[in-house]
Amino acid sequence: MPNRLADSTSPYLLQHADNPVDWWPWSPAAFEEARRREVPVLVSVGYAACHWCHVMAHESFEDDAVAGLMNERFVCIKVDREERPDVDAVYMTATQALTGSGGWPMTVFCTPEGAPFYCGTYFPPRAQGSLPSFSQILQAVADAWRDRREDLVHSGQSVVNALEKMAAPRAAGPIQPLSPELLANAATELAGTFDRAAGGFGSAPKFPPSMVCEFLLRHHASTGDPNALQMVELTCERMARGGMYDQLAGGFARYSVDARWVVPHFEKMLYDNALLLRVYLHLWRQTGSALARRIAAETADFLVRDLGTRDGGFAASLDADTDGVEGLTYVWTPAQLTEVLGEQDGRWAAELFVVTAAGTFEHGASTLQLPAEPSDADKWRRVRAELLAARRHRPQPARDDKVVAAWNGLAIAALAEAGALLAVPSYVDRASTAADLLLSVHLLDGRLRRTSRDGQVGTNAGVLEDYANLAEALLVLHQVTGQPRWLTAAGELLAVLQARFGNGEGGFFDTADDAERLLTRPADPSDNATPAGASSAAGALLSYAALTGSAEHRQAAERALSVVGWLGSQHPRFCGWALAVAEAALAGPVQVAVVGEAGDPSAAELVRAARLGTSPGAVVVAGRPDAEAVPLLADRPLVGGAAAAYLCRGFVCDAPTTDPEKLAAALRRSA
């Protein structure tokens, strides 16, 4: 019999709807039930693509005896961290504080008031060394609640007090002026942890450093620092040639379990691929790298083909597992290659993809790598197509098809920019469709909801990153299409962002002032898998200021960037997007307005020259002179009846030009 999760819009919660556990969704009613029964609360947090979440579900939550103990002694709440990042943030902070580490699945035991007193992550069905079994944990916590309840309540309140101190947003105080020296020091600090053999930063496991790469690309464009560019080039090449990249269908896995990008954790996340699409796109724009261009195009195709939803949005993820086996869809043995391709081509493919008898993964199977470009391009295309066709007959990973506003914002921005730079109009069309979905379905009475599924909007309020990333996406669409409606909608989102999320000192909370009250109000200034909400807000405010000339929005962006001073100098790996936005702030505003008649090829050449310029954070808008509701086109006429480009840098404008080469040269000088 389905439990209370059966009506959820979250695929992750629906995965648990038939558990014998009497799960509750996160709700005040669940905590009220715990108070009525005088039992503790068990909060289990995970997400649909999480391998170990599935393992614990199969081992424990589907076990009748374990479920019986859970139901008898606890009120059990299941949380999708992607739907409720605020709940996840609060309890992850507690878990890390109490255990020294964190991750998913996350298992938290709380008082009926929500105060955590015992935390952990994955617990096995049977004790393993010093790690107790989940049943032992359940029994011990239940007995302690019965025998030492006052101690647990006191412990929980102590945790809450500590969380409140940790969550207090750092007072911005006087703005620390951004300076080239500050950003140069951050680049130097990054170089100290850079893996010069395999790319990336630190050791295994390695996550794609998307936001850091964006900063380093902008830093190179601003300063010419060759080391900054080399770090990005090596990292991007090794990621693209390793097993973390899907060599057959495109798209990146979540992370590599080893330091050389060979064996991935196979889940594919929308946010990773959206962020990496822009990194490879910008690397190609800056260097002309054929590899970077190919990876950008293939990643864009992956987003549209494999993550596009029938309502026009983009799905959250593809699962790490297939039929309960991690990587089953993706790995190969030499014999399997031969079976599909024949003896000769099978041997060629095994050598090309580093598929060996010993294997690089489990049970003698190998992930596919591509250490070098194939010498026979035609053969490569044929072999790749045949293998992909064969792979599609294998069982496929499940897809979490909920639409997350923030992550769709990242995808919209990436696809719109890719469509403009790679001259693929269908990418722009697809980005516009997703933006329309978010504005028509997720935006209710001027406020964003975080998720939807099959066109049905969820009940969870949008958080800071939802507003910031969608606003940035709409600003990119405005630049790419010239349509003023995107600029107007972005301005409205930013107005809500400033009114509801500000902390009164220039910084931002991650939740709105009228959102559900949790133990604390999260305000994390650091990047995680996605850019920090505050950094994304600063970037969107800065772009809006450049597009409209608003001094108010620029000042708000600079105020929000005060975090760069104290975090960027010490931990640049965790504030890459703030550093990237800071580069744009120092370089600009850089504004390019191209005026011309619709369909004028001369105007199109000027627009392309402007978009291929490498000035950090430059905004580019094109349209007819004095186009309505497009501020950058106001009072900018044609020059001698011809299309013209107007370039302004740091509030100073050059003379208009009709020559694309002169425009490109001027943009290079402004970098």
Notable characteristics:
single chain; 671 residues; alpha+beta; five-stranded mixed sheet; four-stranded mixed sheet; 25 helices; 21 strands
Would you give an account of this structure?
This protein is an alpha+beta fold and 671 residues long. Helices cover 50% and strands 10% of the residues. It contains 25 helices and 21 strands. The strands form seven sheets. A five-stranded mixed sheet has the order 1-3-2-4-5, sandwiched between helices. A hairpin with a 2-residue loop joins strand 20 and strand 21.
Summarize the structure.
With 671 residues, the protein is α+β, with helices and mostly antiparallel strands.
Outline the secondary-structure elements.
Blueprint: H1 11-15, E1 23-25, H2 28-37, E2 41-46, H3 51-61, H4 64-73, E3 75-80, H5 85-99, E4 106-110, E5 116-120, H6 134-147, H7 149-167, H8 180-192, H9 210-223, H10 226-241, E6 255-256, E7 264-265, E8 268-269, H11 270-287, H12 290-307, E9 317-318, E10 321-322, E11 325-326, H13 334-341, H14 343-353, H15 377-391, E12 399-400, E13 403-404, H16 405-422, H17 425-442, E14 443-444, E15 447-448, E16 451-453, E17 456-457, H18 464-481, H19 484-501, H20 533-548, H21 551-560, H22 563-568, H23 576-587, E18 590-595, H24 601-611, E19 619-623, E20 644-649, E21 652-653, H25 660-670
Parallel strand pairs: 1-3, 2-3, 18-19
Antiparallel strand pairs: 2-4, 4-5, 6-7, 8-9, 9-12, 10-11, 13-16, 14-15, 16-17, 18-20, 20-21
Helix pairs in contact: 4-6, 9-10, 9-11, 9-23, 11-12, 11-16, 12-16, 13-14, 16-17, 16-18, 17-18, 18-19, 18-20, 19-20, 20-21, 20-23, 24-25
